[in-house]
């Protein structure tokens, strides 16, 4: 298990290296390695244009892509386990949309002038979505955790999209552009400070969630099984939901809506490694990180020097995959 | 003090009462059977015993302590249940399912150690499930799944084993094997067993004590000879039957008259 994680970590680092070197301004690999080695040995100062590009533009963006990819994938794993449905993810359930709506409201009322004001509102948006999901799906025994929850998510998501469009149509055009781009997912806007906050949330969240991995193994087998074997569902479920929503809310509020990662990555990892969450969680986190770094690199490179929103790339890969999943499930 | 005791339990899922004023107790080392027609509340009673459901009124005590006050994990160390059948959407190996029986004994960040694997291996050996340890649980037959679930319950190392129709899908050989195993564990480790069944003869031949439920109430309770009578069967199940004695052990034996 450690071996698999180590291998995937290695793949992630290699991808990061490639991503550092390519772009509208190509940086030689040898040059890149020399700069990195210099930075690691401590004598760090930006002395050339290349180093400026590496350390102040590309590296933060790549790290952020990794963090966001990992967070969304973990979110997918947890929600799929909690709902016992391989089609659930933060995006489909409307939790990303709720976060986005919260963030947009935040931007419009000027919360961005407070430190962490927008992420906080995004978090509220995510939590409100979770509660709405519970209410809409109905609270009767057992009936909560079937497909009705997923359908409610779709409905809530549609409602939030409408609300977001409404806000977009009433704000003035200057703010409009930045919000639109942000809705399609944008990894280039986060500041170093924000990236560090996201990293802390991700690592702390992951450490806490990893402790629940064996409980998740039981929960995916049904609520009764989990209860029979000693999982305290009344505490565990809200804890998992809140923790996951927090992580999702933080990354969505900083990176915008990047769809389909949360659905594709956990499912692929399950195909390869099985359903034991002790392996699934780290595998999904690392693979999700690698996948988003790759997608973001493509977004930078395909039309260089122009950039595509990264959400476009993930949705282009994700939507066909989602249909494939649905078809497979139907047969 | 009884290991398991129910005091005046009422329970309902909706308005319609499912359990009315149910009281009984099971001592350590006893084998008790719960019988009754469809919808008489057998499975519900099992879930109340292990604290998955709480009674609306009255109290359910394990070791003299109300199930509401027990931590779920502590109950799971003491009481294991073998459910009728479960379906799992995500792929798990049979051995992973059995390994999950160790859950209540482990902390969040601790992995299973050699001792846990030994217990799991033994549980699978006893239930004859080692042959398909590395097959997906969902691909197994109903009888094989049932044995895997029995193995999981054994891996919990419980003091009390609750069985919900756990022999229905088993072939004859595995039924005998399982019943023999239960008797062994009952004799050697004082394992208490409470099983729900439709099979009157299974109950009569194997239980020390039989609880006959009818519409959520206890109709009769006692040893097999007291409970399994033609009059009771007629009254509760509305069928005619012939009750005679098993010539080997003198326990009641039922034949349906059609």
**Helix count, DSSP H or I runs of 4 or more residues of chain A:** 14
Radius of gyration of chain B: 19 Å
Quaternary status: heterodimer
Encode the helix/strand succession of chain A as letters: HHHHHHHHHHHHHH
**Number of distinct beta strands of chain A:** 0
Can you list the strand order of the major beta sheet of chain B? 6-7-8-3-9-10
Looking at the overall shape, the CATH architecture of chain A is Orthogonal Bundle
Question: How is this structure best described in words?
Answer:
The complex is a heterodimer of chains A (331) and B (258). With 331 residues, chain A is mainly α. Chain A has helices at 2-21, 29-40, 49-83, 95-108, 117-137, 147-170, 173-183, 192-210, 213-219, 223-228, 233-255, 261-273, 277-301, 310-330. The two termini of chain A are 32 Å apart. In chain A, 47% of the residues are buried. By secondary structure, chain B is an alpha/beta fold. Chain B is built from 9 helices and 12 strands. Chain B has helices at 42-49, 72-78, 94-99, 114-126, 142-155, 172-189, 200-206, 224-227, 230-237, and strands at 4-12, 17-26, 31-35, 57-62, 65-66, 79-82, 160-164, 192-196, 209-214, 217-222, 241-245, 252-256. In chain B, α4 (114-126) crosses α5.
Summarize this structure as a short list of keywords or feature phrases.
heterodimer, A: 331 residues, mainly alpha, ABC transporter involved in vitamin B12 uptake, BtuC, 76% helix, globular, B: 258 residues, alpha/beta, Rossmann fold, 9 helices
């Amino acid at each position: 298990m450690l071996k698999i994680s180590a291998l995937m970590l290695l793949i992630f680092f290699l991808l990061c290296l490639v991503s550092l070197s390519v772009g509208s301004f190509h940086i030689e690999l040898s040059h890149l390695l020399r700069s990195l080695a210099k930075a690691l040995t401590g004598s760090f100062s930006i002395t050339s244009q290349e180093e400026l590009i590496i350390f102040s533009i590309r590296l933060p963006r790549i790290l952020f892509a990794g963090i966001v990819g990992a967070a969304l994938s973990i979110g997918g794993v947890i929600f799929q386990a909690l709902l016992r449905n391989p089609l659930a993810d933060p995006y489909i359930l409307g939790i990303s949309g709720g976060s986005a709506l919260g963030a947009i409201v935040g931007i419009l009322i000027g919360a961005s002038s407070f430190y962490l004001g927008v992420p906080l509102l995004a978090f509220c948006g995510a939590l409100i979505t979770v509660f709405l999901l519970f209410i809409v799906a109905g609270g009767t025994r057992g009936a909560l955790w079937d497909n009705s929850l997923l359908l409610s998510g779709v409905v809530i998501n549609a409602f939030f999209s409408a609300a977001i469009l409404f806000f977009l149509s009433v704000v003035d055009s200057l703010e409009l552009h930045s919000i639109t781009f942000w809705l399609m997912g944008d990894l280039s806007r986060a500041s170093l400070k924000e990236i560090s906050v996201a990293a802390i949330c991700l690592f702390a969240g992951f450490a806490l969630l990893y402790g629940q991995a064996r409980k998740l193994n039981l929960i995916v087998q049904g609520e009764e099984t989990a209860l029979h074997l000693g999982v305290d569902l009344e505490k565990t479920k809200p804890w998992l939901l809140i923790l996951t929503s927090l992580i999702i809310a933080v990354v969505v509020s900083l990176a915008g809506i990047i769809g389909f990662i949360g659905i594709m990555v956990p499912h692929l990892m399950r195909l390869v490694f099985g359903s034991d969450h002790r392996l699934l969680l780290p595998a999904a986190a690392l693979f999700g990180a690698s996948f988003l770094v790759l997608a973001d690199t493509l977004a930078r490179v395909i039309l260089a020097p122009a950039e595509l929103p990264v959400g476009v790339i993930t949705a282009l890969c994700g939507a066909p995959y989602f249909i494939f999943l649905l078809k497979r499930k139907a047969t | 003090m009884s290991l398991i005791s129910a005091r005046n339990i009422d329970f309902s899922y909706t308005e319609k009462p499912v359990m009315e004023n149910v009281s009984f107790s099971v001592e350590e080392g006893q084998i008790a059977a719960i019988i009754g027609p469809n919808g008489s509340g057998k499975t519900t009673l099992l879930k109340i015993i292990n604290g998955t459901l709480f009674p609306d009124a009255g109290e359910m005590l394990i070791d003299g302590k109300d199930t509401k006050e027990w931590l779920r994990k502590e109950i799971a160390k003491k009481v294991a249940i073998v459910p009728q059948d479960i379906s799992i959407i995500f792929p798990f190996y049979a051995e992973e399912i059995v390994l999950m029986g160790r859950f209540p004994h482990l902390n969040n960040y601790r992995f299973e150690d050699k001792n846990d694997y030994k217990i799991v291996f033994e549980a699978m050996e006893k239930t004859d499930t080692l042959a398909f340890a590395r097959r997906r649980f969902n691909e197994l037959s109903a009888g094989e799944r049932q044995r895997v679930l029995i193995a999981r319950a054994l891996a919990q190392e419980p003091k009390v084993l609750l069985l919900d129709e756990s022999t229905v899908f088993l072939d004859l050989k595995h039924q005998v094997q399982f019943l023999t195993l239960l008797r062994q564990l009952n004799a050697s480790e004082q394992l208490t067993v409470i099983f729900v069944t439709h099979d009157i003869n299974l109950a009569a031949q194997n239980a020390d004590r039989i609880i006959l439920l009818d519409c959520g109430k206890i109709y009769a309770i006692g040893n097999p000879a007291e409970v399994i009578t033609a009059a009771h069967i007629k009254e509760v199940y509305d069928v005619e039957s012939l009750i005679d004695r098993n010539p080997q052990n003198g326990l009641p034996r039922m034949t349906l008259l059609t």
